[in-house]
Amino acid sequence: MHVLDHKGEFLKVRGPLNIARPIQGWPVIVKAGASEAGRQLAAETAEVIFASGSSLVEAQRFYADVKSRAKKAGRSPDHLKILPGALVVGGETIEEAKRKRALLDSLVHPDSGLASLSIALGCDASGFDLDGPLPEIPETNASKSGRERFVSLARRDNLTVRQLAQIAGSFGGLSFVGTASTIADQMEKWLLADGCDGFNVMFPYVPGGLDDFVDTVIPQLERRGLFRREYEGKTLRENLGLPRPENRFLS
Question: Could you give the domains of the chain?
């Protein structure tokens, strides 16, 4: 324990805190976001990044950039794990999986889609012409990477606001749709090509989607040596392969 002796504008406390140091040293620090400032902050301080991106090429650029920033900051790149969000939709056949995804996307209500689009763009989209192109979107203090992703998508594919809202209300990021084998193939490709260190796996519904992934995809990954058959450690930090930080107050 140590004396804080903190004196601020709104709080003054001597300390020390009367609890032991956590078994992990401190909780795993997780950062989300891909803006310039967000990347630099993650490289300097984070231990896990929840990343986005729908293509392997984009992911490889992000991976290389953030890892190099961490190294320049005097950190081991291995101590910063990049985990893109990945929606997994499985089926007995690829066609069945695609039908599942299409059905889920079709259930997005326009009002819900516009609300999600407004959050992503950082401005109110409810007054936009649904069947017109996306108007110019001003810069805001909202998510920079989220705004850029949807603006770029709208310009690239000539999407209407209605189409963009449906994507925003469903899931427009990385998705693996197919059989257990093809999903494992895609995950393996990303892992071996330095697109990520793992995945923040998301499911279209629970518990069914989670059960399907555990029962069908996990065995495929285990057979390829890409997923553990048992936990190596007792904490989240250990199982992520992250070191326990030293106590900075001990000399």
Answer: 6-96+174-239 (3.20.20.30), 109-169 (no CATH)
